[in-house]
Amino acid sequence: MTDRAAPEVLISQEEIAERVEALAQVIAPRIDNDTVAVCLLTGGLWFAADLTRALWRAGRDVRFDALWLASYHDERKSSGRCEVRADLQRPLIGRRALVVDDVLDTGLSLGEAARLVKDAGASEVLTAVFARKPWDKPRIEPDFVAWEAPARYLVGYGLDDEGKSRGLPYIGAMD
Ligand SMILES: O=P(O)(O)OC[C@H]1O[C@H](OP(=O)(O)OP(=O)(O)O)[C@H](O)[C@@H]1O
Ligand code: HPA
User: Where in this chain does the record put each Phosphoribosyltransferase domain (predicted)?
Assistant: First the structure.
């Protein structure tokens, strides 16, 4: 097994936990217990798991669903296309949805997810990402952002390098 160089730590696990807790306090008044948290698979799992538990501590027991989208396919640049690998499971008609993802980069994935969720009948679509990369003209402005990330290739806390490193408890840069 070849060990790769450790990524440069950009945000520690302690700071991630603090930011998730703080974000849940901001989101809680904007949602109710009928809100469906829609986790974007695969990378959004780690943030969605932490955020839904922080929302519970903030007094919100949300429903949970997932939407599996893929656009990077082991590359470090977006393919420019977003493939739907698995659709929503739960009825969204008339319910508020909170789409949850690890990172907003070009905004293609979050924009596509918001459109799919709206088309599924959600009464309101809110979006939350842990990290937002800087773009002059993002395709979508998320409603909630935990951390403003630099324009670097990120790994950890759901973010992967060819499937690896999603389980790092911190976020680091690989470039
Ligand atoms: O704003 P964008 O440019 O669309 O990039 C963000 C998306 O890219 C990653 O997904 P990816 O397609 O790599 O699939 P993954 O969730 O399995 O990592 C990440 O999880 C976001 O969903
Ligand atoms: O910086 C990133 N790292 C991992 N996956 C990603 N998907 C979009 N941007 C990134």
Answer: 15-140
Task: Give, in order, the Cα–Cα distances in Å from 46 to each of 29, 104, 157, 160.
Answer: 23, 15, 6, 12
ipTM tops the 0.90 cut: yes
Q: pTM to 2 decimals?
A: 0.97
Residue 105 annotated as catalytic: yes
Residue 153, ligand 2, Cβ within 6 A: yes
Domains of the chain by residue range: 13-150
Nearest-CA residue for ligand 1 atom 5 is 105
How would CATH label the architecture of 13-150?
3-Layer(aba) Sandwich (3.40)
- Residue of 42, 74, 102, 154 to test ligand 2 pocket, by largest number of atoms within 8 Å of CB: 154
Look up tokens 């950009």; give the residue.
Answer: 10
